[in-house]
């Protein structure tokens, strides 16, 4: 089997990592919505990135991993951190304060619409018949969803635009991580990009936010913060780097379409949000997109 074919399919271990990442990020949209209702976006992201990277550094150090960044790759690591961590985290944090968590989850996971064409152009990845079918199904679902959004876009146009920009940033960073690899294990690599990418956010929090407001934060909001630190950042960011560096961009991008399903339904369960028929239809299409690419079967 060619290297390209290997990169298009998930090993049993990667399936488990994908399952954990899907659960972690799917439910995180609700956790973020709860936390951001009381914690300012810069402060929230500063806590998540600072504490999350500290957890990862401690785990990696105790398990004997080297934390040294290879010479000649430090600037590369810094630039990747700014694109993948700084951009994504700020855009999503501010966007999520303006629109429902389920809607934000689906908009954010338009990522394959941007990542797959970029991967063909920048990385030269090959699109098979099954990939094209999966991509088409996923994009029909996204267009369906966004068409509905156009009807009531005036309700929160800035929030929707911010989350869509976050999706583009995520797509670009996924392609660049493949195009410009850093010779580090996934754990230390993740800890460093979280810390470096968090520096502009730390500075922003110090300039803009009032940390005294944290004394009035409720236990529920602190629970959302804790979930982000331990699950959505320390674990899920490691899983993201692991999958990104192990799979083709196409396979990874479409595998991520599982996550908005949980984002929508967790918003239903915990926040009382009510997805529309269009949202259900869009989710069915993006799940079909995933099945078309990931399940074993005869090639076209």
Give a brief rundown of this model:
With 300 residues, the protein is an all-alpha fold.
Work out the radius of gyration: 19 Å
Instruction: Tell me the major beta sheet.
Output: none
Mean pLDDT, rounded to whole units?
A: 81
* Tally of DSSP helical segments: 13
**Regions with pLDDT < 50 over 5+ consecutive residues?**
1-6
What is the count of structural domains? 1
Query: Could you tell me how far the N terminus lies from the C terminus, measured between alpha carbons in angstroms?
Result: 16 Å
- Outline, from the CA principal axes? globular
Strand percentage, roughly?
under 5%
Strand-pairing-aware structural class:
mainly alpha
Helix content estimate: over 70%
Number of strands: 0
Spell out the helices and strands N to C.
HHHHHHHHHHHHH
């Amino acid at each position: 089997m060619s290297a390209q074919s290997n990169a298009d399919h998930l090993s049993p271990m990667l399936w488990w990592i994908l399952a954990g990442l899907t659960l972690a990020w799917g439910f995180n949209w609700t956790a973020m919505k709860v936390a951001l209702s009381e914690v300012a976006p810069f402060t929230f992201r500063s806590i998540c990135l600072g504490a999350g990277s500290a957890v990862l550094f401690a785990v990696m150090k105790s398990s004997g991993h080297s934390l040294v960044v290879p010479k000649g790759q430090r600037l590369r690591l810094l630039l990747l951190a700014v694109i993948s961590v700084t951009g994504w985290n700020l855009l999503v944090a501010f966007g999520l304060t303006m629109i429902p968590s389920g809607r934000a989850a689906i908009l954010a996971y338009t990522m394959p619409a941007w990542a797959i064409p970029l991967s063909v152009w920048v990385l030269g990845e090959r699109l098979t018949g099954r990939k094209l079918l999966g991509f088409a199904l996923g994009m029909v679902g996204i267009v369906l969803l966004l068409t509905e959004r156009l009807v009531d876009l005036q309700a929160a146009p800035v929030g929707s635009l911010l989350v869509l920009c976050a999706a583009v940033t995520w797509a670009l960073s996924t392609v660049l991580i493949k195009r410009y690899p850093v010779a580090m294990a996934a754990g230390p690599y993740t800890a460093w990009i979280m810390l470096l990418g968090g520096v502009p956010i730390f500075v922003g929090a110090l300039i803009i936010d009032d940390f005294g407001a944290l004394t009035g934060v409720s236990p529920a909001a602190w629970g959302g913060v804790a979930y982000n630190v331990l699950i959505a950042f320390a674990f899920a960011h490691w899983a993201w780097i692991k999958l990104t560096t192990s799979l083709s961009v196409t396979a990874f991008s479409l595998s991520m379409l599982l996550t908005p399903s949980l984002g929508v339904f967790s918003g239903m369960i915990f926040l009382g949000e009510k997805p529309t028929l269009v949202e259900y239809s869009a989710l069915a299409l993006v799940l079909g997109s995933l099945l078309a690419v990931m399940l074993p079967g005869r090639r076209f």
